[in-house]
């Protein structure tokens, strides 16, 4: 018997996992809760923090 089709939400989840998380300052391990980039010891401009994948030094924040 063939396997039933995958639920759309699960397919979307697997696609997200394959592509990785979006790269923004807010989910970078070097971005402090108070808005400072610890790598460069500065507050990035708001325009910079709103663009995905702009920083080559982005590192994924550990989710726990």
| Termini gap | 40 Å
Major β-sheet profile: none
- Shape descriptor reads elongated
| Share of β-strand residues | under 5%
| Annotation field: number of helices | 2
- Unreliable stretches covering 5 or more consecutive residues: none
Helix content: 25-40%
Output mean pLDDT. 92
Q: Would you tell me the structural class of the helices and strands?
A: mainly alpha
Report the radius of gyration as a whole number of Å.
Answer: 16 Å
Total beta strand runs: 0
Order of SSEs, N→C?
Answer: HH
Provide a short characterization of the protein structure:
The protein is mainly alpha-helical.
Describe the fold and architecture:
- It is a single chain.
- The chain is an all-alpha fold.
- The protein is built from 2 helices and no strands.
- The chain has helices at residues 8-19, 46-49.
- The longest helix is centred in the first third of the chain and has 12 residues, at 8-19.
- The chain is elongated.
- The termini are far apart.
- The model has no long low-confidence stretch (mean pLDDT 92).
Ordered list of secondary-structure elements with their pairings:
Elements: H1 8-19, H2 46-49
Please describe the structure with a list of short key phrases separated by commas or semicolons:
64 residues, mainly alpha, 2 helices, 0% strand
